[in-house]
Design brief:
heterodimer; A: alpha/beta; three-stranded antiparallel β-sheet; 14 helices; 12 strands; disordered N terminus; B: alpha/beta; four-stranded antiparallel β-sheet; 36% helix
């Protein structure tokens, strides 16, 4: 999810508190300055050996390229260096603790990568005859079985390509179900604390979004839900709720909310971004959920890869199962059939359409299934318990110094603090986060959820050892005390030890430069001309 | 459990520290009636070796593209990816990083996104590109929504040469968003009169070139007619390598260019993950969906990169955003960027020539098979043939002979008898003379 420092320009440092020693190259030991590939690439080399085709007789019918294609190349060794140097400027979960709340930065097992690269999965085409890929269909069926079993749901739509795409799929199924019932309700209820994708998804489908307030305790106000339902009686398409919610809390009244929305002929969409807190502990199907996407990259550890690819299968209740988009799996006896087109449909199957070309994120399916098999039912439950235990351990370790907006109650897999503890220190939430970078940590999620001022959402995940948590807690305590003592030099202008100081986001947005432009050629001096 | 660092002793100590004797006390907010008491009805944990064995057995049941003479295209293509690409994208710092929201410690990701945007803009001949979409099909649907926002009209005209599954994705989303689409009948030879379908209500015309059937289409005249009626031209491609040899859509007047980038740097993966390429004109950037990376300076005046113009996006605009998407295909665009870096413009042009030459040879080989008729006159690396029998049957029979001989149009566009004997075939730089000969021989036998 996207909620870190969003829309808040970071102020450039006024003075660098740490003296810097300049070098001729700009490089400093292992900290390399890396130009853009366009600045070091050349057009007279190629990093791939290709032979000119013999007897080239094009059949392009007048469509041949005449426009310039000005893209330089790097040789293979230069390419290695360029991208290895770039990689060294990235923080990653394999490098250190990455406590981004709601993003779930957990260990990415390399077994998953190895399995996804088996030629039998990586080197098969989505449109080769299905008779030549029975193992691929089996894999999807097995993964689907794990997903519906874990969630207690009737069916699963596998093809959505990411979490938000899954939301879209779920809401499209809900819209299709209403249409099939001859209804056309216009309202979707969305709590204020919801991920931005929720209201955006509903709006994309033409729904009007009605916000629901949170209670003092950080959970959805059940009475407010009922009031909104009454206010818009007969026009409620459904509710989009995250559970555990974005404040790191479990919505205790979830069943009551589900019953209220069902009684109003609406559907309950659950944002499953935080499913990793409850796998093996509770099934969304038992809570009254009709549709929920599962971020395979969060709960089942497929790597985030700098922002994607994700994968967002959607589990569906029996009320929505018939509307699952193409392609879908049909169970038949002991086996399954992969249904690709409307021509193959049977009575009672009425898919609302198709979310994407082909079958979805097969590469992610393999990784997720490898992860599930590695854990098993016992390990998945243990992982949820450890994630929740770790978050509460961090909460207890910091709650006397940092401020908890909703008091000392159990949190799920993430713990939410606010910036009350920074009041009158002159240190902002952003300063605090940037100072964490100097301590070797990726900052936590900031300014989200929006319902809390100066939110800091910490999710350690189950991947962290006790000693890693102890060091993290000690570091955070040191930073808090430092801020409260008035040591603002440590915060203002931080980070001091990153590849870059704070970047001017306002300038980037005001005059967007979105690609490299070749500099104007320098005027050739007359005496230098041939 | 090998992925979990806590020991039972750690857990006991930590429970004591937070003040519970049983972990279930922490889960007390879950309603009692919905709390799972035992384990889920799923297998228990497996060793690393056990998981490998299970998955390797499943994988072994599939016929891979490298094992057989292979001519399957229609939106996904078998190309050679240099070993460097996969090695580099597996570096921890790329693989296990998150969306670059803390730019000071994510310059690696941000810089390659900026390089990616530059490469995509150059390839498509457009002014700006975003940092990727999920894939070509979802990108096309987003392009249509974007055109509706820009023109404030709601009718999209879809060419009959558009990939049928792309068409379905566009139609599905448009219908749900209360927009209209008009899809022209299937157009194997590229002879449809799309100009006649453009009127003053049209928001955009969506045209694929090379088309689903492989036919190269003149976009210029379509752009002119669209613009004369205040509509936009959305140009779609599924084979990005074609841009090394054919005139880019940007040079032909396209307003939005969207396509599939899988062919560069990314494997087949049974359909995903892929990488959607999305480019447009400068004046439309605030209506563009997806993520953008921009250049700026840091506090010390050094050049650096940040995600920018996020005020278009869902996490700021919520229900007013240009799109609900919040992720991109980060790692897949890294693979694309690395492969494109190795190729450069000249390398891509050469690769495109090899691909085209390979298809021209395939055409010659198949034309020698009695009863086979090639539909397309101008094509890149794939084209459509008309067979004397239903193509679906022929493909199955070929598979039994160990040849994966293309995609029957009826698989994607069923229930249209006129299309039943059409087969889309592709050849690339990995196709050999032996492959082509084996295909022709097998096809001769199947048709005999």
């Amino acid at each position: 999810m996207s909620m870190n420092n969003q829309g808040r320009p970071s102020a450039p440092a006024e003075t660098a508190a740490v003296a810097t020693h300049e070098t001729f190259t700009g490089n400093k030991a292992l900290q390399m300055e890396e130009p853009l590939l366009f600045e070091i690439g050349r057009t007279d080399i190629c990093g791939v050996d290709l032979d000119e085709p013999e007897d080239f007789a094009p059949a392009l019918g007048g469509h041949a390229r005449t426009a310039e294609l000005d893209l330089p190349a790097l040789s293979e060794p230069e390419t290695m260096r360029h991208f290895v140097r770039l990689s060294s400027k990235n923080y990653a979960i394999d490098a250190g603790l990455y406590p981004l709340g709601s993003c779930t930065m957990k260990h990415n097992p390399r077994l998953n990568e190895k399995m996804a690269r088996l030629p039998g999965f990586a080197d098969i085409h989505p449109l080769q005859p299905l008779s030549t890929v029975p193992g691929a269909v089996d894999l999807i069926a097995e993964l689907a079985h794990w997903l519906v079993t874990m969630t207690g749901m009737e069916a699963v739509a596998m093809s959505p390509k990411a979490g938000a795409h899954g939301e879209l799929c779920g809401m499209m199924a809900i819209k299709a179900a209403h249409k099939a019932a001859g209804r056309d309700p216009k309202i979707v209820l969305v709590p204020e604390s919801a991920h931005g994708t929720n209201p955006a998804t509903a709006a994309l489908l033409g729904y009007k979004v009605v916000a629901i307030d949170a209670r003092e305790d950080g959970t959805v106000d059940t009475q407010a839900v009922k009031d909104k339902i009454a206010e818009h009686a007969g026009d409620i398409a459904g509710i989009m709720l995250t559970n555990p919610n974005t404040c790191g809390l479990f919505e205790r009244d979830i069943i009551e909310i589900a019953e209220a929305i069902h009684a109003a002929d609406g559907y309950f969409y659950c944002d499953g971004a935080n499913f990793n807190a409850i796998v093996g502990k509770a099934r969304p199907g038992d809570l009254g959920v009709d549709a929920m996407h599962i971020n395979l990259h969060k709960t089942f550890s497929t790597p985030h890869g700098g922002g994607g690819p994700g994968s967002g299968p959607v589990v569906l209740s029996d009320r929505l199962a018939a509307f699952a988009p193409l392609p879908f799996l049909r169970k038949e006896g002991d086996g399954v059939t992969w249904v690709e087109t409307e021509a193959e449909l049977r009575e009672g199957e009425s898919p609302f359409g198709r979310m994407t070309a082909f079958h979805g994120q097969m590469g992610m399916y393999v990784r997720a299934l490898a992860y599930m098999k590695s854990h098993g039912a016992d390990g998945l439950r243990q992982a949820s318990e450890d994630a929740v235990l770790n978050a509460n351990y961090v909460r207890v370790g910091l709650q006397d110094l940092m401020s908890l907006p909703f008091g000392e109650r159990w949190c799920m897999h993430e713990v939410l603090f606010d910036d009350t503890f920074l009041k009158d220190t002159g240190v902002t939430t952003l300063d605090f986060a940037k100072a964490m970078i100097d301590e070797g940590y990726h900052p936590m999620t900031m300014y989200f959820p929006l319902v809390v001022h100066g939110a800091m959402l910490i999710e350690p995940t189950e991947s962290e050892s006790r000693s890693a948590l102890d060091l993290f807690i000690a570091t955070m305590r040191d930073l808090v005390m430092s801020a409260q003592k008035g040591e603002t030099d440590r915060f203002k202008g931080a980070p001091f030890h990153a590849p870059r100081a704070r970047l001017d986001e306002t300038r980037a947005a005001r005059k967007p430069v979105l690609k490299w432009e070749r500099p104007e050629p320098r005027k050739v001096q007359p005496e230098a001309a041939e | 459990m090998r992925y979990l660092p806590l020991s039972d002793a750690d857990r006991a100590d930590m429970r004591a520290r937070v003040g519970v004797s049983d972990i279930d006390e922490i889960f007390a907010d879950i309603p009692e009636s919905a709390r799972l008491k035992g384990l889920l009805d799923l297998p228990t944990r497996q060793s690393e070796a056990g998981v490998e064995r299970d998955l390797a057995r499943m994988a072994a049941r599939n016929t891979t593209a490298s094992q057989v003479p292979f001519f399957v295209g229609a939106g996904a293509y078998k190309h050679h990816v240099p070993a460097t690409v996969d090695h580099l994208i597996q570096r921890s710092e790329f693989l296990t990083s998150y969306t670059p929201y803390q730019p000071e410690v994510t310059q690696g990701t941000l810089q390659y996104l900026f390089e990616f945007q530059t490469q995509v803009a150059a390839l498509t001949g457009m002014e700006v590109a975003n940092a990727s979409m999920y894939d070509g099909s979802t990108g096309t649907a987003e392009a249509v929504l974007m055109a509706h926002r820009i023109t404030r009209r709601q009718k999209a005209v879809l060419s009959g040469g558009l990939h049928p599954q792309y068409r379905e994705v566009v139609e599905g989303l448009s219908a749900m968003a209360n927009d209209r689409t008009v899809a022209l009948p299937a157009d194997p030879a590229g002879t449809e009169d799309i100009l006649a379908a453009i009127d003053d209500e049209t928001s955009c015309v969506v045209v694929q070139s090379p088309s689903f059937y492989g036919q190269l289409i003149d976009l210029k005249s379509i752009a002119e007619k669209a613009h004369a009626h205040g509509a936009l031209l959305i140009a779609v491609f599924t084979e990005v390598v074609s841009l090394g040899l054919i005139e880019p859509p940007g040079a032909q007047g396209a307003d939005i260019v969207v396509g599939e980038g899988q062919s560069i740097g990314n494997g087949l993966n049974f359909g995903g993950p892929y990488v959607g390429l999305f480019a447009t004109r400068q004046k439309y950037i605030r209506q563009m969906p997806g993520r953008l990376c921009g250049e700026t300076v840091d506090a010390n005046g050094k050049r650096g990169f940040v995600l920018t113009l996020s005020t278009r996006e869902q996490h700021i605009r919520r229900d007013k955003a240009t799109s609900n998407i919040c992720t991109n295909s980060g790692l897949c665009c890294l693979a694309f960027t690395i492969h494109m870096t190795l190729l450069g413009g000249e390398g891509l042009k050469k690769l495109a020539r090899i691909n085209h030459a390979s298809a021209v040879k395939l055409k010659a080989a198949l034309q020698g098979v009695p009863g086979v008729q090639v539909i397309n006159d101008a094509f890149f690396n794939e084209f459509t043939v008309k067979l004397p029998k239903p193509a679906a049957e022929v493909v199955e029979a070929l598979a039994e002979k160990g040849v994966l001989g293309g995609v029957p149009v009826s698989r994607l566009d069923p229930g249209k008898p006129a299309l039943d004997d059409l087969l889309v075939v592709a050849a690339t730089e990995v196709t050999t003379d032996e492959d082509r000969a084996a295909f022709a021989t097998a096809l001769k036998e199947v048709l005999a």
